[in-house]
Amino acid sequence: MARSDESQLAPESTSALSSITPPIHDDLDQLLSILPAELRQPLSNHSQRHQLIEVILDLGRRPEARFPGQADYLSKQVISSADLQHCIERVGTFGGDNRAGIEKTLHRISAIRNRSGTIIGLTCRVGRAVFGTVEIIRDLVEAGKSILLLGRPGVGKTTALREIARVLADDLKKRVVIIDTSNEIAGDGDIPHPAIGRARRMQVARPEQQHQVMIEAVENHTPEVIIIDEIGTELEALAARTIAERGVQLVGTAHGNQLENLIKNPTLADLVGGIQTVTLGDDEARRRGSQKSVLERKAPPTFEMAIEMLERQRWVVHEDVATTIDHLLRGRLPETQIRSIGDSGKVVITHELPDVISQRRSTRRTARGWRETGQMEPITSTSNRSRRSAPTPLPLPTAADNFQELLDQQLDTTSLEMSSPVGLNGEDLVPIYPYGISREQLHHVIDTLKLPVAITKELGVAQAVLALRSHVRNHSKLKTIAKSRQLPIYTVKSNTIPQITRALQRLLDIDPRDQAAAIDLSLFTRQGDDDELEALEEARLAVEQIVIPKGQPVELLPRSAKIRKMQHELAEHYRLKSLSFGDEPNRRLRIFPA
């Protein structure tokens, strides 16, 4: 489900976006001038010259030019040491990060060295100043909030940073300082490239000193905005938080394609608030029907907004990183805003709801067991049993820990119509909202009986509520919301297989006699081993051949406590009373007639 609208984000946008292709300045001739003559000619005459990404020169291999979607060899001759030396002499000094540049350009030359330190390969990457790319998020830049850009290498993060710096410095008249670790944002040499406008640039002597230069910029040069490229260490993440807490707007990039990558990265998790494990009390864990250890955010995020750059002109915007992270840790996806450049050259803003997004993103798991599966969990096949045994993602015990506040949140965020979930065989599934119900038991019943039911974590998309009776009795808010939405509430007295089974049968309007005629003993066992099935078969035969037809009690063989529990549940399924008696290891079950 998606909705879109076209927006002119600023008065300047009309002229800036009048052409779909923004103006580009690449100084390509200066990059070609460092190459040997026999390589310059093929590139100068190449049909895709202005789309060149990089030139690869590796010792003993043929030179290669890379373009979007293809790579072409430039010569039949292999690269020699003399060819490499020819290029090295015409570029700047290689720093500690093995990068060099060409003065007054944005090109980057990166070296590959052998074990003795000799350069045996060069990557000559084209640097381009692309004007107009920031128009897609100009309103966000003008808002004055800190922005984090994420995306795969080559998608244009550094180009976007450069344009953002120019807009903030020239158009918005702010004091902007760029922390330029590899001279990649403002180019090589002491004079910054004109692409950054009036923004100032601080060079970093060695990459490991970037965090120190970040703090120095704040203390010495009174910036209103700091631009940082490639935050990659814990010290840099800490420095970024220190800067943000001093009221300075941050615009930076980090390693990772999506926010989920930062959650899983302990080094950079502080950029999104940091992640910690919280242990719930028994009552709270039981109320949520979950494990006792859950993940929550430790602090406010360093960056208030985040942008996932999927493509050069298609970006996913998270305007509230704190809310997005909280949703991800709960196993849910928030509504996502996607911005792109339409055919008319205008910015198109599309809002996609979580159920649509979840179909487009593959399931991910963290080491902690939280997962990203969207809102619905269709359960129709036994092949999904291993997936369902993973710990269930839980709401965070933050300000919304109070049940009433949690329901209020859901009431506010689920007013949109959602499509009905569909099972593996194409049948419509009934979405139910469990409250206080054991997820493991619920999954097991639905899976074994192949019931057309989907579990949802959102009250607003449910067609019914399945709850523990004692929990509903103490929470009038749930009953109030269910009544306002005309949602039926089905309750169970306890978290047992028979109770849950009967509640689901009532919910689906299934006659219990249809399933009692051919009872599936695997419903009452988790492992399904021979001992468990033998004990359950013994109990079934005793019930069906003696207790019910003859009205006589039956005493079963001694069993372990685990197996006796299964036999108790089987007896409860027949609505019969059962008791355990005797001492271990001879403790056994006795089933009484109704």
TrEMBL record:
Residues 1-22, 359-399 are annotated as: Disordered. The keyword Amino-acid biosynthesis does not apply. InterPro entries: AAA+_ATPase (IPR003593), P-loop_NTPase (IPR027417), PTPase_dom (IPR058670), R3H_AAA (IPR034081), R3H_dom (IPR001374), R3H_dom_sf (IPR036867), Spore_III_AA_AAA+_ATPase (IPR045735). SUPFAM superfamilies: P-loop containing nucleoside triphosphate hydrolases, R3H domain. One of its GO terms (molecular function) is nucleic acid binding. Gene3D superfamilies: P-loop containing nucleotide triphosphate hydrolases (3.40.50.300), R3H-like domain (3.30.1370.50). The keyword Nucleotide-binding applies. Residues 530-594 form the R3H domain. Pfam families: PTPase, R3H, Spore_III_AA. Keywords: ATP-binding, Nucleotide-binding. Residues 10-21 have a biased composition (Polar residues). Signal peptide: none annotated. PANTHER family: KINASE-RELATED, P-LOOP CONTAINING NUCLEOSIDE TRIPHOSPHATE HYDROLASES SUPERFAMILY PROTEIN. This is AAA family ATPase. It comes from Leptothoe spongobia TAU-MAC 1115.
